[in-house]
Amino acid sequence: HMVLTEPGAIRGNHYHTRGTEVLAGAGPLLIRLRDGDARMELQIAADEAIRVTIPAGVAHAIMNTGDKPSAIVSFSTESYNREEPDVVREVLIEM
Cβ atoms within 10 A of the Cβ of 95, count? Predict the structure, then answer.
C-alpha cells in the first residue's frame, strides 16, 4: 500500500509475526527498528530516499520529520487476514 504521511505523523510502531515487509520512502524520515535486543535508528535526509526490508519479528516505526507530506510505500509477502492478523503493537516512536 502507499500512504501520504503528514509532518510529525508516525507509521508502524508494530511488528509482524509472519512475512517480510519492504518499505520505501523519501526523506526527511526517522526510522527505528528493533530486533530482539538490537536497536537501529536511521535519519533519512530530505534529499534522500530509502528502501528497508524488514523480516517477521522486527519492530519498526517511521516518522515524517519534515514540514511537508511524505510518501511511503509498503509491500508484504503475506496478504492481510482479518481472522488471523499478524500485527503486534510495539511503540518505538512516541509523539
Answer: 6
The region that residue 8 occupies, defined by phi over 0 for left and psi between -120 and 50 for alpha, beta otherwise, is left
50 bridge partner residues:
25
Domains of the chain: 2-79 (2.60.120.10)
Q: What is the pLDDT of residues 32-69, one digit of tens each?
A: 999 999 999 999 999 999 999 999 999 999 999 999 99
What CA–CA distance (Å, rounded) separates 57 from 89?
11
Task: Look up the pTM and report it.
Answer: 0.92
DSSP class of 92: S
Sheet with 59-64: strands ordered across: 38-44, 29-35, 59-64, 10-16, 87-89
